[in-house]
Every structure is written in structure tokens, then in C-alpha cells.
Write a structure and sequence with these properties.
- This protein is α+β, with helices and mostly antiparallel strands.
- The chain contains twelve helices and 19 strands.
- It folds into two domains: 148 residues, Creatinase/prolidase N-terminal domain (Creatine Amidinohydrolase, Chain A, domain 1); 253 residues, Creatine Amidinohydrolase (Alpha-Beta Complex).
- Strand 2 and strand 3 form a beta hairpin.
- The protein starts with a helix and ends with a strand.
Length: 409
């Protein structure tokens, strides 16, 4: 949570931090509460306020963040810096950041974060380090100051995640009704003109509903049928007609305007389900229910994954625990955190070193699945849940789990 940032800075022996990039970066969105700002900087000394350095044109947006503000154009006029350095953008940018460090009295160990092109950041920060001998620029990999802070959500963030769940479930219901509103001819779902209803048509409808409900698509949803449903992140063939009796993995993960994701999956089979798909679905639903019942503050994330592997292995399925390179059976972890990124901590995986236990503020998915592409099907069930600041379990996904979607003639 944001309140943990000072403690996390102290643990990392950081005297301050700098966040670069625009509003597409998760750290910038996190600290500005979703404000859209272009080319902004966030700066904080361990003993000082979080300060937003923004462009003059975005001063109204910046004011809504409630942060301490510095108008970039008034105090660090980039046009003047470009003139001083005869159009050399790198030199001008280094001079700009040097002035920022001086203005904010940043010294000692300063962590650097944000969304910036890797090559540009490498050149820029190395040049900046040469100009600032009193500063040690620090990078982090893996579990950083902000991935750790963002791993737990406060109740304000949880309200955004609850809203994301409500709207996503509404869209899923509308998609189901959209499909059911079509005729079936020779086990193919068809439109009014008799041509097949395709996955591409369904995806176009999903995007229409996103627009109506104010949701955004960060990257393409998954609506994969038959063999494609057996490859977990196959997004689906836009040209493929919808057919009865084939498994459809529908994994949907939009964001609300503040940038918070929801993530849920349902497996559907239109009209009827084949025996192999029904059997796999029942097995997945059994371990899904078992895992959901085990969720509690203090529960080991790793143990939840091991429990799932053991269950599937007892039924004869290969898993990532018994066969790490398997491409069929149970091929992934049980779940992951969600927030301003679709995949963030904590991880419900069995990887060595995963000692995480569920705690207040964690928001996770639970998503067991079985995948057999060569047998022409895949099955996954996924809900998102959270623990609020009081440690109470909050269900974020509210939608029926039914495998078979009834269709008319």
C-alpha cells in the first residue's frame, strides 16, 4: 500500500526516488491516482513530500492529484535548455534532470523507476550519473519498491477493483445474451443473413460494450474455441465460426478509467458439451472450489499451487510440478495478483523462493485449467478475489459458472 512506501524506502536504504515516463506507466498511474500526464516526473526525498513536476498545459490535471506541484515549463524551461545545448536533446535532458535533483535537494541513494524506453534510459541515466557525483542512482529488478507497495491494495483501490468486476461481469452477461440471440443451422451459429457468427464478431461486440460501460482494453481478450482453447493464451481466430459442442475459453480483462484491471474466465460450450469437455470441466471446477475454500489470511501461496498439482496428478494429468515443460494438462500457476497490471504479485506458484502468504490487501485470481489442444479442447475457470484492509475476503467476480450455454434452433 502507499502507506508502506516510507518503510520500504528505509528497508532499501533509499534516500529518495525518481519516477519518469507518462501515464501509461503503472508506477506513475499508481502515485498520481490515474491522472493522465505526459512526460511528467515524480520526485520524493525520504523526509519530504511526493512532488509532481508537470507541464504547464496539464496544470489542472496535476492539481487534482493533491500532490505537491512544480510547473516544469516555469521552472525548467526545456526550450531554453535546448537552445543552450544547440539542439542536443540528450544534453538538454541531462541538464533538466540535474536541475531537478538540485531543486529537490536529492542526494545519496536515489531509486529510479517508471516507463521509459530501455535504450534511452540506459544512455540518459549513465550520463546523469556522471553529472551527479553526490548521487548514487539505483535500479531494482524483480521485487522493487513499487511492486512490493502495489502488491497490497488499500480500500480506496479495492473500490476501483470492485467496480471493475461489476462492469466486467455485466459485459460477460451481455456477450452470452448476444450469442444466444442468434440462430443455429447445422450446429453453426449464424447471423440474420445466414452467414456464420464468428469469433471476430463476438470480439467486436465486446469492444462495443466496453465503450458503453467506460471500460478499456489494454490488450486483446481471449475468446478461443476448440483446439485454440487448449493453448492458454491463444486469443482466438477472428475468422472461426461459432459451433455447438466445442469448448470456448472466454478470458476477459478490461480496465476501468483509473487503470485497475479485472480478470475472469469462463468456459462455455454452446448447446451441449462433449463427454471429454464435461469431465475436464467438472475436474477443474472441483479444484477451483477447493482452492477458493482454502483462501485465508496466512495461507501459503505456494501450497495452494502444490495442492492443485497434486489433485490433477491424482487424476492422471501432467502438471507443471511433475512435468515442468508440459504443454498439455495443467500448464500454469494457480493465479496471480491484479491491480494496475494484469499480472503482478502475489504469485500462486510453486517456484523456488516463493514464501508469500496471503495477507490483507492482496488481490488475486484463482484460475485452474486443463488444456489438451491435440484433443481439441481447453477448460479454465477464473475468479478474482481480494482481502480488504481488515483481512476479510471480498469476491470480485459474480457470474454463473455454467459450462453449457443453451441455444435456440
Amino acid at each position: 500500500m502507499k502507506k508502506d512506501i516510507p518503510r520500504l524506502m528505509e528497508e532499501r536504504n533509499l534516500d529518495g526516488f525518481l519516477v519518469m515516463g507518462d501515464a501509461h506507466g503503472a508506477v506513475m498511474r499508481y502515485l498520481t491516482s490515474g491522472a493522465f500526464l505526459e512526460g511528467a516526473l515524480l520526485v520524493q526525498r525520504r523526509d519530504g513530500p511526493l512532488t509532481l513536476i508537470h507541464g504547464s498545459m496539464e496544470r489542472d490535471t496535476a492539481a487534482k492529484t493533491g500532490l505537491a506541484l512544480i510547473d516544469r515549463d516555469a521552472e525548467f524551461n526545456f526550450y531554453e535548455l535546448m537552445a543552450q545545448h544547440k539542439g542536443d536533446r540528450l544534453a538538454a535532458h541531462v541538464a533538466y534532470l540535474t536541475r531537478v535533483f538540485q531543486r529537490m535537494e536529492l542526494s545519496g541513494r536515489v531509486g529510479v523507476y517508471g516507463l521509459v524506453d530501455a535504450g534511452e534510459a540506459y544512455v540518459l541515466l549513465n550520463r546523469l550519473q556522471e553529472r551527479l557525483p553526490q548521487v548514487e542512482l539505483v535500479g531494482e529488478f524483480g521485487e522493487t519498491l513499487f511492486t512490493k507497495a502495489r502488491e497490497t491494495k488499500d480500500d480506496r483501490e479495492l473500490a476501483e477493483l470492485i467496480r471493475a468486476g461489476e462492469l466486467t461481469c455485466q459485459v460477460v452477461g451481455e456477450v452470452q445474451e448476444f450469442i444466444q440471440g442468434h440462430r443455429v443451422v447445422d450446429e453453426v451459429v449464424v447471423r440474420e443473413d445466414g452467414r456464420p457468427l464468428t469469433i471476430g464478431h463476438v470480439k467486436a461486440f465486446i469492444r462495443e460494450r466496453y465503450a458503453v460501460h467506460g471500460l478499456h482494453e489494454d490488450h486483446e481478450n481471449i475468446f478461443a474455441q476448440g483446439r485454440d482453447a487448449g493453448v492458454p493464451h491463444n486469443s482466438g481466430d477472428h475468422a472461426m465460426p461459432l459451433r455447438l459442442g466445442q469448448s470456448i475459453v472466454f478470458d476477459i480483462f478490461p480496465t476501468v478509467p483509473s487503470g485497475y484491471f479485472h480478470d475472469m474466465t469462463r468456459t462455455w460450450s454452446l448447446g451441449y458439451a462433449t463427454d471429454p469437455v464435461l469431465e475436464a470441466w467438472e475436474q477443474v471446477k472441483t479444484i477451483f472450489d477447493r482452492a477458493m475454500a482454502e483462501l485465508a489470511v496466512g495461507k501459503s501461496c505456494r501450497e495452494l499451487q502444490l495442492m492443485t498439482c497434486e489433485y490433477f496428478e491424482s487424476l492422471g494429468h501432467p502438471t507443471v510440478c511433475s512435468h515442468p515443460d508440459t504443454q498439455e494438462g495443467y500448464v500454469h500457476s494457480l493465479g496471480h495478483g491484479i491491480g494496475l497490471d494484469i499480472h503482478e504479485g502475489p504469485r500462486l506458484s510453486h517456484v523456488p523462493g516463493n514464501t508469500t502468504r496471503l495477507q490483507p490487501g492482496h488481490v488475486i485470481t484463482v484460475e485452474p485449467g486443463l488444456y489438451y489442444p491435440e484433443r481439441g479442447f481447453g477448460v479454465r475457470i477464473e475468479d478474482a478475489v481480494a482481502f480488504n484492509e481488515a483481512g476479510e475476503l471480498v469476491q470480485l467476480t459474480h457470474f454463473p459458472y455454467d459450462l453449457v450455454v443453451p441455444m435456440g434452433g
